[in-house]
Specification:
The structure holds two protein chains of two kinds.
Chain A lengths: L9 E10 L2 E11 L4 E5 L6 H8 L7 E6 L2 E3 L4 H6 L2 E4 L11 H6 L9 H15 L14 H12 L6 E5 L7 H16 L3 E6 L2 H7 L2 E6 L2 E6 L1 H6 L2 H13 L12 H10 L19 E11 L10 E6 L3 E5 L6 H9 L3 E9 L2 E2 L5 H7 L1 E4 L3 H5 L6 H6 L9 E2 L2 E2 L1 H15 L15 H13 L5 E5 L7 H16 L3 E6 L2 H7 L2 E6 L2 E7 L5 H14 L3
Parallel strand pairs in A: 3-8, 3-9, 6-7, 7-8, 13-20, 13-21, 16-19, 19-20
Antiparallel strand pairs in A: 1-2, 1-4, 4-5, 9-10, 11-12, 11-14, 14-15, 17-18, 21-22
Helix pairs in contact in A: 15-16, 16-17
Chain B lengths: L6 H30 L7 H19 L2 H25 L4 H24 L23 H5 L4 H19 L1 H11 L1 H6 L4 H27 L11 H11 L4 H23 L6 H19 L19
The chains are: A alpha/beta, B mainly alpha.
């Protein structure tokens, strides 16, 4: 076993890192100890990812120091980090999809010839340690996300490691895969390695972590030590973490946060198991808004296409589509929106066959689409917020008359939507590209949901947004459905699907492989079962 | 007509196929190395011309074909330095730089040639042969295949060696990852900058060698715009071959066949208009494009400069 575990403490002292316009890390200090799982908690943008980029040698701190076992080190490049035994599993995969598992693991090896035999032995050793099975010759792109992550962990520990950093490792996994991951982490910890687990979900931090550090606005705003955390009940730990995480936002300054505030914050932070109050609505009695009958899509690209998809969305219903990213969600969304043509099957909207009508025609019927590519497909960054808000109504009155743009009408509409959706922008004339991701998403939602929307297709609506906007976006969708609108929600975030959807269908390689009515406990497991069954072939 | 298909005729035919295929083969192998590392070099036409001209001048002055080939390779490396500095190091647009290299290469070599050699057009004479003992005595194929110049064999070995290296060495793995997902290479402790730099220079050397082969062995002279679009055909072949050097070699041979078959048809009595014959290789490339273009796969990171931690 070449895994050299040491109990050296890795100490970060006063790490500061600024990007233009934002201080990502502001004098952050923390100690990482071997044999412990150290959870790093915080919202999006709290500086977690920057901190580990610095540990991984991808970024250099502006000031501050890192010491390993009391000796100050300069992690000037990823290679140096690897040499110090710091292995990082990044949030975004660093595996090359076109390579086999072994090729990915050998990448970065020195020596002239590839030593496949030695690599295969090392993989076996690590797979044993992690308690997983990995086919060394499988193409990485053929693996499920859970397995890809196992390969990533093996890669991070490849050169013998003292610290394993996992950045949001559970965000794309099924409940079953999360359980596997927890077991692997426990095994790694038992070997004496230090583990840093980055997450924004409280219950994971409590379940997997030995100690917790909370970041907010780039600063270390709270630490719960090993003994302290062990003595806390889950509720106590939650409250302690939440008051650190949301500090000033909870209640009035100076007074203790109220229970209601904490509850709201807990919900924001995904502390509780996501559940949905089942409303006693029998959708079968409601009219069908959208119906797909055996729809198969075709486009020129190399995307996975929708294959023989049959589904119905009723009036006022939110139908969730769960699935691993890139399993045909985009094709399904576009075939409904009219951006991609169906080679077979029928698309019915309010009982009318719209299979042959284009984007504009469907839009006027009330079919709307919020793309997941909000920066490129969704908005024109160099154009004003106002124009972006009416861009899908190009040429239509009152915004265009005789081919000329009616600035007054556009501005009036823009002002209305900016107020209604709370888009934070200096003015309607500001270039859309300069706004934050959350505000750009609000522009998209405002544009699509206004002017007679009856069905909205949303693809990953909250991906990469801060918690408050996430909350807001979800509220908007729930409100839209409550008023009789229909939503086809495509998402990779299982919690989101469970929170919003009335029913959940699972998509895999372009086909729907199973559906679950979201009626309380156990939905996540059922959905996860379909996801793993379809992907790993272990049904 | 049957006596036209004599042994001597077939020997000449095979030799012509090889002579036409080799420059393209070398250039396309060079382009493959670059593209696998993520660098689309549209300047290959210019680089080939620089290689061809350098080789021509060196051989004319020294009388040595070997030194000429070396000169051509060095010329190619120097021409690709522009791509190295402007794209790999400074991150400028590959397409713009590539087109600039093509235009500059065409311009410079034409001007220099017209300045120095038009008054007394020079030819290089016959290449040195390296008959392989035994094999070269085989009738028909022997003289065609096994009485080639030693340069031919070195070039073939070079291509095969690179095919092996790309698949089986750690260098090959790094190079391919630089084109597939440079951030992975970076995270694995490799240097994207160094990997791509090596690939660009190696690519330049091979493309220059292709130009040199064209000037020294295929045409035995230099003239302005000698390559006549061969560089762009090399780009097409590279993309159709999906980075597999052995496929590049076979496709190049098909091209050589297309070029050689026209004159051969005339010799055996088919009266084909000369214009059609000249069009044939390009027609074949277009047909290949139409048939195979859908299956062309380029590395995902092709054409994108890499900046660590870009956000």
């Amino acid at each position: 076993m070449t895994t050299t575990a040491t109990t050296d403490v890795i100490s970060l002292r006063d790490i500061t890192k600024a990007f233009p316009g934002v201080i990502a890390n502001d004098r952050v200090s923390l100690d990482i100890v071997g044999g412990q799982v150290h959870c790093l908690l915080g919202e999006n943008g709290a500086g977690k990812s920057t901190l580990i980029s610095i540990l991984a040698g991808m970024q250099q701190p502006d000031s501050g120091s890192i010491a390993i076992g009391g000796k100050t080190v300069d992690i000037s490049s990823p290679k140096v980090a690897v040499d110090y035994g710091i292995g990082v599993v990044h949030q975004h995969s660093t595996l090359v999809p076109a390579f086999t598992v072994l090729e990915n693991l050998m990448l970065g090896d020195t020596g002239v010839l590839q030593n496949k035999k030695q690599a295969a032995e090392r993989l076996e050793e690590l797979a044993d340690l992690l308690g997983v099975q990995i086919d060394p010759h499988a193409l990485t792109s053929d693996l499920g996300l859970g397995q890809q992550q196992q390969v990533e962990i093996a890669k991070a520990m490849w050169k013998g490691s003292r610290l394993l950093v996992l950045d949001e490792p559970t965000s794309m996994l099924t409940p079953q895969a999360i359980e596997h991951l927890g077991e692997s982490i426990a095994r790694v910890k038992a070997q004496g390695l230090a583990v840093v687990l980055i997450t924004h979900k409280l219950r994971e931090a409590y379940a997997m972590g030995d100690c917790v550090t909370i970041l907010r606005g780039g600063r270390n705003v709270g630490h719960i030590g090993v003994d302290e955390l062990a003595s806390y009940s889950e509720k106590q730990a939650q409250d302690a973490i939440l008051s650190a995480m949301f500090g000033d936002d909870l209640g009035a300054a100076g007074s203790d946060p109220t229970a209601a505030d904490l509850e709201e914050a807990a919900e924001l932070a995904g502390a509780t198991e996501a559940t949905r109050e089942t409303r006693a609505i029998d959708f079968e009695t409601r009219p069908v808004r959208l119906e797909l009958r055996g729809v198969t899509s075709r486009a020129g690209g190399r995307d996975i296409e929708a294959e023989d998809v049959t589904l119905t969305v009723h009036e006022g219903e939110i139908l969730g589509i769960a699935g691993i990213d890139g399993h045909g969600q985009a094709a399904l969304a576009e075939v409904v929106a009219g951006q991609r043509s169906a080679v077979s099957g029928t698309v019915l909207f309010d009982g009318v066959d719209i299979t042959r009508s284009g984007v504009r025609g469907r839009q006027q019927l009330g079919v709307r689409y919020v793309t997941d590519d909000r920066l490129h497909e969704g908005t024109v960054g160099s154009m004003s917020v106002a124009l972006n808000l009416v861009i899908k109504r190009i040429g239509q009155k009152p915004f265009w008359k005789a081919g000329r743009i009616q600035q007054k009408a556009v501005d009036a509409e823009a002002t209305r939507l900016i107020d209604e959706y709370g888009i934070r922008t200096p003015s309607a004339a500001t270039r859309a590209g300069t706004l934050s991701g959350g505000n750009i998403q609000k522009i998209l939602l405002a544009r699509e949901l206004t002017n007679g929307a009856r069905l909205v297709v949303v693809n990953k609506p909250t991906y990469g947004l801060d918690l408050k906007t996430v909350h807001l976006v979800r509220e908007i969708l729930i409100e839209f459905a409550a008023q009789g609108g229909s939503v086809l929600l495509l998402s990779t975030d299982l919690d989101e699907l469970i929170e919003l959807s009335h029913r959940i269908e699972v998509i895999s390689r372009g086909s729907l492989v199973g559906g679950v009515v979201n009626d309380g406990a156990g939905t996540a497991e059922k959905v996860g079962h379909y996801m793993t069954g379809a992907i790993e072939g272990t049904d | 007509m049957s006596d036209m298909l004599s042994a001597a005729f077939i020997t000449v035919f095979i030799a012509t196929v090889i002579a036409q295929a080799m420059p393209l083969l070398l250039a396309a192998v060079g382009e493959t190395i670059g593209e696998q590392a993520g660098i689309l070099n549209l300047g290959i036409e210019g680089v080939m011309l620089v290689g061809a001209y350098t080789a021509f001048v060196v051989t004319l002055t020294t009388g040595s074909f070997w030194l000429g080939m070396l000169g051509g390779a060095i010329g190619g490396v120097v021409a690709n330095l522009a791509m190295l500095v402007l794209n790999v190091w400074l991150g400028l647009n590959q397409i713009v730089i590539g087109l600039a290299i093509t235009l500059i290469g065409e311009g410079i070599t034409s001007v220099l040639y017209l300045q120095n050699y038009t008054k007394s057009p020079a030819s290089l004479g016959a290449q040195p042969k390296l008959p392989i003992p035994g094999l070269s005595d085989i009738p028909v194929i022997g003289p065609a295949l096994f009485q080639q110049s030693g340069i031919f064999w070195i070039c073939i070995l070079l291509a095969l060696g690179l095919a092996f290296a790309l698949a089986r060495t750690n260098w090959g793995l790094s190079t391919r990852s630089a084109g597939q997902k440079p951030s992975s290479l970076d995270a694995a402790g490799g240097s994207v900058m160094r990997t791509r730099s090596i690939a660009v220079l190696l690519s330049g050397g091979l493309v220059g060698l292709g130009g040199a082969y064209l000037a020294l062995l295929t045409t035995a002279t230099f003239s302005p715009f000698l390559t006549n679009g061969l560089g762009f055909i090399a780009i097409v072949i590279t993309m159709l071959s999906r980075g597999r050097i052995l496929v590049v070699m076979i496709t190049s041979l098909i091209y050589g066949l297309a070029v050689a078959i026209g004159p051969a048809l005339q010799v055996i009595g088919f009266t084909v208009p000369a214009d059609i014959i000249k069009m044939l290789p390009f027609l074949i490339v277009i047909v290949m494009l139409i048939v195979f273009a859908r299956s062309s796969v380029v590395p995902p990171a092709l054409g994108t400069p890499y900046t660590r931690g870009a956000r």
